[in-house]
Amino acid sequence: MEILRVEGLSKIFGSGRLEVRALEDINLSVSEGDLVALLGPSGSGKTTLLMCISLILDPTEGKIIFDGQTIFQKNGWAGVDIRRIRREKIGFIFQAHNLIPFLTARQNVLFPLSLLSLKREEAESRVMELLKYMEIADRADYLPALLSGGEQQRVAVARALSNNAKLILADEPTASLDTGRGMRVMELLKKIAKENRSAVIAVTHDERMIEGFDHVYHLKDGRIVGERTNSMLN
Amino acid sequence: MDLAVYDLKLHRGRFIATVLGVGLLFTIVLAMNGLYRGNIQEGLALIKATNPDLWVVERYRGGPFNEQSTLPEFYHYSVKAVPGVEKASPFIYYTVERPIGGKSRHFSIVGYDVFGGLGGPQKIYAGRNIEQAHYEMVAHPKLGVRLGDRIPLGLHTYTVVGLTKEAVSSDGEALVYLSLADAQEVLYQRDNEEVRNQRERLLITLYGQSYLSPVQAEKLLPKLQADTHIINAILVRLKPGADCTEVGRRIEKWLYLSAFTTEEELQLMLKGRLASMTKQLLLFRTLLLVISVIIVALVIYTFTMEKIRSIAVMKLIGAPNWEIIRMVMEQSLLLTIGAFLFGLALIHNTYQLFPRTLLLVPGDDLVTFIVAFAGGILASILGLWEALKTEPALALGGGQ
């Protein structure tokens, strides 16, 4: 089942002589269980595309269909509460983990759930379930500063999964990890995508991890210049 | 989830230091409230305790407390003769600094007619009132004296026969009640050496006058001695049914004096001597409250800026604005309320140590709390403004 479809998406910053076309005519489709990479050099537009898909940057043109609902078209956001969509249907994983430093691991995972209308006990139980799943339950009451980089990454993944997101967006999820740990994160993302029937879109320029993705979109100067599937990569 | 409290737990050292610092400022504000009330109470205490129907003073003077007023003592007979006056008593009030118990003490002396006149202490809590024409005193315990103590003042020694807490001087210093004659003597009577010197100076001046023989000059000398029968006011009690305004008008018209009711005397003090102090304290309190708000605002701004990336992450995750507003404002209010409570506890446990009377009134505490609370909300605005304009894109490395 298709989770995200992007059609003819463009993003232009500035106007006149200062106009910068950051994205131009982007088309992509992501379905349940897909692990998709947006690959490209710096300035290719991959972070801009991630921001548009994250619903935090208004595209200039194009259409975004999310979970069967058109949420952006020519006239702007189609009367939807984009913050609510992010809260309920999207999970985020960051290169720098971006855990909230004054919350413990357990509270960091609980935070997205506290924004939903869930019972406290239900939310707490889901948090512990996720921390166990991420094999970090024994560090649940530690502040991020007391966790290793790998542990922080696992807490960040648990947080992204806490709201049963349809779409998980990852910004350079393996960039700060060594090859072994990077591979483990890739395996984890793949497992999540399959088991949760969600999709993962990751921005990366980490060529080491390309093999782990089902689809890879190559971006250059704001355009998709190449698309490969897993079978081609292998 | 109480984000504000979790953040403050992580920064508890800075939070506590700020609470103590701002709390000390609130202590000063609350102390000034008490000082203001105390000053008003003390400034008016003697007027209220004396409470005659009319205060008669030198013409065009707002005396005897707000401004100096001097009258010849015998004027009280003229006032007594005004229709409607039942009793007119001479009254003297002045401030001195004299050694008592080996220490230099600043205090005020009230002199009054001890044989049935007005102006004496109404409530004696130990001992008795003055019963002799000379050498007895009633004092406020602030002076550090006890019943039976013998206190030298000027040429003579006075025995403490009674203690009263009824009133203090308008400066908040201790009061001493003496008979009128004793009070005049303490104020005006010089020691013998000084009297001799003055006589000689006067004689030399008189001998220099060609129209006076030496015998005439010596006869004239006693007439030129300084008169010590001076008073500051005449206290009047009216006959039953007499019109206060009418009696006052008669005194002003026929005796060329000024007359004030006790209420007018209170107003003279409030609008005169106490007014500038009131304004001064109000200005200080306002400044301190503004400084407190600025400090809280800067601390909250710093707290907010330190977690601006976390705020961007929260927004990206989908946290509504009210969640972020609540976090910033709650921190500001926790800081303000914590500091206020610290200040309140401190002042209520130390006010007795202040040299001036602090009169702490629950109403003043409440008003200060309301102002501080509003200030706490105001202080969060800078932090809120930064937090709300933070782009969620910052979490992804974009935005500002």
What does this structure look like?
The complex is a heterodimer of chains A (234) and B (400). Helices cover 32% and strands 30% of the residues of chain A. Chain A has 234 residues and is of the alpha/beta class. In chain A, a hairpin with a 2-residue loop joins strand 4 and strand 5 (69-73). Chain A is globular, with a radius of gyration of 18 Å. Chain A starts with a strand and ends with a helix. The model of chain A has no long low-confidence stretch (mean pLDDT 86). Chain B is α+β, with helices and mostly antiparallel strands and 400 residues long. Chain B folds into 2 domains: 3-43 and 274-396, no CATH class; 54-189 and 228-260, no CATH class. Chain B has 12 helices and 12 strands. Chain B is elongated. Chain B starts with a helix and ends in an 11-residue tail after the last helix. Classes of the chains: A alpha/beta (234), B alpha+beta (400). The A-B interface holds A 47-48, 50-51, 54, 56-57, 83-88, 90, 92, 94-95, 98, 100-103, 107, 110-112, 114-115, 143, 159, 171 and B 1, 3, 6-7, 9-11, 307, 309-310, 313-320, 323, 391-393, 395-398.
